[in-house]
Amino acid sequence: MLLEGKKALVFGVANNKSIAWGISQSFKAAGARLAFNYVGDAIKKRLDPLAEEIGGEFTFQCDVSKDDQIEAAAELVKEKWGGVDILVHSVAYANREDLKDDFLHTTRAGFHLALDISAYSLLGICRAFAPLMNEGGSVMAMTYYGSTKIVPGYNVMGVAKAALEASVRYLSYDLGAKGVRVNAISAGPVKTLAASAVSGLKSVFSKVEETAPLHRNIETTDVGGTAVYLASDLASAVTGQVLFVDSGFSNMAF
Asked: Residue 61, SS3?
């Protein structure tokens, strides 16, 4: 199997509809070992049964907006596993009001919050876990088309995803010396908890079916297949890239 025995940390499983969960299912099918973060008791209650179902080895509290929790998570993982082969960053957040009004009205605090959790957290995680990453390791972050094109209602999250993609490129340079690859997957719209907060995405689902070359919306397992590729030795020379998994929608002019 492509990921036999590889140790994968997955940040961002909220429920069984999460893109991060689809990735986790694909990782497990490819032979990977899994561990998951959670933030607070409510998510832990949803996550623990999923982790048990998939054979996850442990879960851990880690609010990615807090450096001390990221560092504590790295220490825990070091004790449990010694090293890490795969890191998945599937974390994004913005205030709901900043996804409903015009982007023009985004507050300074809302802008800072979205960029901190959705983009800077990747840097924070990579910095803490870099000493634990095994040679040939893979880091991947989830992004979206709204980073480069206007998606009405996506607003500050589009700016955050643009920052995330730029971070992927710079981190790929820094971590390349360790033989660690850093990439992003730009997934098409999926009906997840996060997507439900973005009113502008609702019309995109029908638009994808109408105009994308494959005329269908994607499933989380479609993203999972690409994640397995990026995590495996098949992608040993692929780094600093954004791979689109969107039925070809991003290629269409109209």
From this structure: strand
Active site residue 145: no
Task: Report the DSSP beta bridge partners of residue 84.
Answer: 133
The share of the chain scoring above pLDDT 90, in percent, equals: 91
What is the pLDDT at residue 112? 99
* Residue 33 pLDDT grade (very low, low, confident, very high; cuts 50, 70, 90): very high
- The residue extents of the domains of the chain are 7-246
Question: Which one of the listed residues 144, 170, 173, 229 is annotated catalytic?
Answer: 144
Instruction: Decide yes or no: CATH 2.60.40.10 for domain 7-246.
Output: no
Establish whether 93 is a catalytic residue.
no
Section 166-193 average pLDDT: 94
State the catalytic residue, choosing from 154, 170, 173, 229.
154
DSSP tag of 188 = P
Which of 134, 31, 13 shows the shortest CA–CA distance to 78? 134
